[in-house]
Amino acid sequence: MLKGASVKGAYWIPEGVEEIEPGALLGCRIGTLHVPWTALLHEHDQLVFSEDAEENEEITPAVYFWTKEYANRDEETWAFEDEGEFRIDDNGVAYSFDGNRLLFARFSFTGDEYVVPDGVVTICSMAFATCRQFVTLSIPKSVRLIGDFVFGPGGGKIVIRDE
Fold it and tell me: Which of 76, 97, 109, 146 could make a disulfide contact with 92, Cβ separation 3.0–4.6 Å?
């Protein structure tokens, strides 16, 4: 049980965990939460970080629901926040401090279009996986690496800008 935990960066719920008890995440402050494929939890509304609904929406981290083992990931494109160091723009999209890596969109991101700024080199795997809506990403020519499963259930498309 994590109740009240404060974790900088990413927290990976161990594979093999089958159930997350109600209230287990109350008071937790987590940068990114990874839920293993073994867990019987597959919806954001099952995650409660605060009993206050408004605060819960503000503090809910990016959450990745895995459909395969963690070991199958391509680490070059995963959004590991080793020290929990990232910045979030006005749209709720997180970047590495140097701005080279688009890490993830927070659950609060609800846009159907997003313009990735010039200078971004990597769009990490599952960056917009929390989005239920179709998302159109406008990316600069500086992007050289795009991770797996970038979009959520709503899908999306990537448009390369002609700048």
Answer: 109
Query: pLDDT per position in the chain (163 positions), as tens?
Result: 455 556 656 777 877 888 877 777 888 877 778 788 788 765 666 678 888 888 877 777 777 777 777 654 444 555 554 445 788 999 999 998 888 889 999 888 999 999 999 999 889 888 998 888 999 999 998 888 888 888 988 899 999 998 6
Give the Cα separation of 13 and 108 in Å (integer).
Answer: 22
pTM (2 d.p.): 0.54
Starting at the edge strand found earlier in the chain, the sheet holding 156-160 runs 113-115, 135-139, 156-160
User: Are 150 and 128 a contacting pair, CB within 8 Å?
Assistant: yes
End-to-end CA distance of the chain: 49
Query: How distant, in Å, are the alpha carbons of 10, 48, 155 from that of 13?
Result: 10, 15, 26
Q: Which of 156, 126, 10, 110 is nearest to 64 (CA)?
A: 126
Q: Identity (one letter) of the amino acid at 73? A: R
